[in-house]
Amino acid sequence: MSDTPIKTKRDGYVLEVTLDRPKANAIDLATSQIMGEVFTEFRDDPELRVAIITGAGEKFFCPGWDLKAAADGDAVDGDYGKGGFGGLQELRGLNKPVIAAVNGICCGGGLELALSADIILAADHATFALPEIRSGTVADAASVKLPKRIPHHIAMEMLLTGRWIEAEEAARWGMVNHLYPASELMDQARSTAALLASGPPLVYAAIKEIVREAEDMKFQDAMNRITKSQFATVETLYRSEDQMEGARAFAEKRDPVWKGK
């Protein structure tokens, strides 16, 4: 449907997801529910290995929650659908790489959406903020995630004051991986996605599960779970055809052919 707020495009192993809700790509309940379905299908489709999430246009990536929809009756604590707000940040078992291509203003829930990705690429004119404090609410997911991603005091300043930061500062604090001119952003995102899509999907799955589950574990406890095959993805990897293919390819001095099984 041409009027859907979410546009998708498949290119081999890569799924591009574009948030397209003029004028600002804000997310209401219905849009969040669609995004949840899209990312659930991505998670469960064996033919897809990498996703890119971006916004339509050059001004807005996403400003987060649609306050106009809220004024018209969308409940802030309503049903966001699978995966929670934006379909990503609470989606269980998402063990495939996700790239956020931030093409403009990225604030509030939009920043929380970007933080749900594994790699964040940004146009050099992008700006970032958590302005919820000014509307008397809390940036809940960002309050959990951001102090773990960038220096604590910078995160707290953003949360407590709603201060906007430019793309260069976001990169300096490690909030984004790389900056590009706007005209190059999607090409760079697609290049990164192609690189990831050529890699071993079962290894990516193991990396994502370990990173996610070990975040609040002591180092030795996490290592014990790995060595005792207590992570499902690690168990799958070590008994897979891809594990043998990687060893054979190394011995034969050739590029491996990953099948994801």
Overall description:
The strands form 2 sheets. The protein has a 6-stranded mixed beta sheet, with helices on both faces. The protein has a 4-stranded mixed beta sheet with strand order 4-6-8-9. With 261 residues, it is an alpha/beta fold. The longest helix has 16 residues, at 29-44. Helix 3 (109-115) packs across helix 4. Helix 1 (29-44) links the parallel strand 2 and strand 3. Helix content is 41%, strand content 16%. It has 2 domains: 6-197, Alpha-Beta Complex (2-enoyl-CoA Hydratase, Chain A, domain 1); 201-251.
What's the layout of helices and strands?
Elements: E1 6-11, E2 14-19, H1 29-44, E3 50-55, E4 60-62, H2 67-71, E5 98-102, E6 105-107, H3 109-115, E7 119-123, E8 127-129, H4 140-149, H5 152-161, E9 165-166, H6 167-172, E10 178-180, H7 185-197, H8 201-214, H9 219-227, H10 232-238, H11 241-251
Parallel strand pairs: 2-3, 3-5, 4-6, 5-7, 6-8, 7-10
Antiparallel strand pairs: 1-2, 8-9
Helix pairs in contact: 3-4, 4-5, 8-10
